[in-house]
Amino acid sequence: MPHVPGPDLTGKVALVTGASSGIGRACAIALAQAGADVALNYGRQQGPAESAAAEIRKLGRKALLLQANVSDHSAVDAMVQRMVTELGGVDIFISSAVYSDREPFHTASLEGFRKTLEVSLFGAYYCLRECARRMIDQKRGGALRVGCASESQ
Asked: Per-residue pLDDT averaged across 14-24, rounded?
């Protein structure tokens, strides 16, 4: 396994949303390089998510693909439950799922703005809340919120 500066995460389990591309994908792979098993959430990009999972498995770590719309509260609850059941808990949460309409502010639709809030704000909230509940029950864990719209569609 390649050396990654930072803590040894062997035995830890991470959930990364938006893990099929960009910062989320890089975080998921870096966590695996540090020793963590990783649950990779994706919305629509199954192929890139499978590719990231394959890279993680080549490192000798477990990779669980979780397709879910993070703006759907019940889908998030089911996603975290599946992760906990299959990987044994949640120690690390990284929120990297974002959406951003690429329209000029003065002509942008409210529908696009609402979707941006639902995914980027409420999606992060739903995931963080559910992971925090699990971490409190386990008496271990931590989280990080990443916000970047440079690759959003």
From this structure: 94
How many whole angstroms separate alpha carbon 147 and alpha carbon 28?
15
Asked if pLDDT for residue 151 goes beyond 50, the answer is: no
pLDDT at 25: 95
Beta bridge partners of 13: 37
Query: Greatest CA span in the chain, whole angstroms?
Result: 50
**Structural contact between residues 22 and 151, judged by C-beta atoms closer than 8 angstroms:** yes
CA atoms within 13 A on the CB side of 57: 10
Q: 103 is written with which tokens?
A: 């329209």
Contact 53, 132 (CB under 8 A): no
Q: What single string gives the DSSP state of each residue in 70-134?
A: TT-HHHHHHHHHHHHHHHS--SEEEE-------S-TTT--HHHHHHHIIIIIIIHHHHHHHHHHH
In this prediction the pTM is 0.88
